[in-house]
Amino acid sequence: MKKVIIIGAGIGGLCTAIRLLNKGYKVTILEKENRVGGKVNLKEKNGFKFDLTASVLMTPDIYTKIFEEVGKDYKDYFELINLNLIYRVNYNDKSYLDIYSDTRKMINFLEDIQEGLSIEYFNLIMTSFKKYLISKKGFLDEPMIDINETLNLKSLQNLIYINPISSASRYISSKISNKKLREYFIFKSMYIGVNPYTNSNLYTLIPSISSMYGLWYIKGGMYKYISSLERLIKELKGEIKLNKEVSKVIIKNNNVIGVKCDNKIYESDIVICNADYPYAIKDLFEDNFKEFRYNKNNIDNKDYSCSVFIIYLGLNKKYENLKVHNIYINDNFRESIEAAFKGYIPKQPSLYIYSPSSIDESMCPKGCSVMNIIVRVPNLKFKDIKWDRKFIRAFRDKIILEVKNIKGLEDIDKNIVHESYLTPLDLKDKFNAYYGNAFGISHKLSQIGYMRPHIKSKTIKGLYFIGSSTHPGNGVSVIIDGSKIVSEVINNDNKE
Ligand SMILES: Cc1cc2nc3c(=O)[nH]c(=O)nc-3n(C[C@H](O)[C@H](O)[C@H](O)COP(=O)(O)OP(=O)(O)OC[C@H]3O[C@@H](n4cnc5c(N)ncnc54)[C@H](O)[C@@H]3O)c2cc1C
Asked: What is the SS3 assignment for 98?
């Protein structure tokens, strides 16, 4: 039985473990923190439960398929709830736009705003959805470790159809005449931490997927999914060791032979690194380690996704106007979005607010609510911002002032019973996210597909990678699918 060591129990590490256990490998995960999940984690205080980061669940089939693959019914592990209202988009003039997955409701809502707006909306959704289907089949579901996978006639035809060069904002503006609806699409297109004003229109596929598949919620929050994966690993006789920080990957004669942790060598035939790829390149390998396009000397020059600042609020009041997913679009919208990519804090931030307690009472004490207020901010490559107490307090005050501008939330500052924060420094220090990036190495065109860090080492036998900075990219469902690709590549490489 081949022995596998996985560095990190993020979503990529957990799902790859399950898929390899199912194929008969002996798997041990070494995780530096005292809990599994990586960035998809949980914060609990006085009965208030907060999903640490991820909240938006698209493509539910990807989440459930991994359970089916190992002969389990996901319903024995977690409950999926369909959200009919997928986003409430609030504007700072106190108006709002509701985005439904229900076609009839969406048409009625948009036609009431502007005649013909529903046609523009569905036209953008459909053209972007086609781009998604093409990308999924053409490269997201492929290993992308061989140049021939990229350079063939079909992929070139696909590229011509996708036409990824024009920016998301330009593409959206060419299709949507209503400013408020346009801003919603632009806001959602930066979901994986790229600037929608300069980066590919490919990422309009994100709002498109939300509308086509709907958005879903797991009762108990996103961490319920992580604890379900953890339970499944234990049932499949996998081993998870917590508080184990790997310090080196051990390589001999271009073969991986294990890892070093707590001054002890853990031997294995295969090592899979789920820790953030650029951090791993820098810290876990010897100086001469080199991968395709990425090495210790050039890794700092790569582009990284933005980071995030999150305020977690426990409130002793229920807020009817808060839905599970809320967006707040500010005046001076473009500045509020681009600041995160240009290295400064916007004067009037636009926000995403996650409030699972609006439908799930298990997230807080009775009569209360929870809110994660999330703002995209520069990653730590931009050195001007000092995330000290004084700065955090001032930024927090600015954000709360904006939230109070949302209809029905005018009194939130008077009802706060728990308040805490997450900064780029936390992402860096807790999870080794390089430069405190929130969404991995940037998904700009020259860093995706074949050009993204590969899932399999070209130089070291037995070494593989999975996670937001590697192919196929960032996002829980993308990484769950990535675990399928990497486990199949490993299995093919190890056929007797
Ligand atoms: C604020 C925010 C919001 C997001 N929202 C969404 C969303 O709504 N929907 C969505 O699908 N995605 C979302 N994402 C993205 C999603 O959370 C990530 O893509 C995903 O969690 C990354 O998983 P990963 O497998 O790359 O591992 P990570 O979560 O990065 O985990 C890596 C693990 O490796 C461990 N590790 C690191 N170094 C070592 C070492 N030396 N030894 C041992 N262990 C080590 C870390 O502690 C960590 O547990 C969001 C991300 C952020 C930051």
From this structure: strand
| 468 Cα–ligand 1 center, Å | 7
Atom of ligand 1 nearest to the CA of 469: 26
CATH topology of domain 3-78+220-302+441-493: FAD/NAD(P)-binding domain (3.50.50)
Of 284, 281, 307, which Cα lies nearest the Cα of 295?
281
Reported as a single tens digit per residue, the pLDDT across 463-496 is 999 999 999 999 999 999 999 999 999 999 998 6
Question: Ligand 1: distance of its center to the CA of 38 in Å?
Answer: 5
Q: How far is the CA of 159 from the centre of ligand 1 (A)?
A: 29
Cα 329 to Cα 184: distance, rounded to the nearest angstrom: 8
Which is it for strands 239-241 and 26-30: parallel, antiparallel or unpaired? parallel
Please identify, by atom number, the ligand 1 atom nearest to the C-alpha of residue 430. 47
pLDDT digits over 57-109, tens only? Answer: 999 999 999 999 999 999 999 999 999 899 999 999 999 999 999 999 999 99
- Domain residue ranges of the chain, discontinuous segments joined by +: 3-78+220-302+441-493, 107-216, 304-431
Q: What is the DSSP string of 448-477?
A: SGGGSPPSB-SSSBTEEE-STTSTT-SSHH
Backbone angles phi, psi at 3, to 5 degrees: -95, 130
Tally of CB atoms within 10 A around 328 = 25
Within 10 Å of residue 192's Cβ, how many Cβ atoms?
A: 20
173 Rama class: left (phi>0) / alpha (psi -120 to 50) / beta: alpha
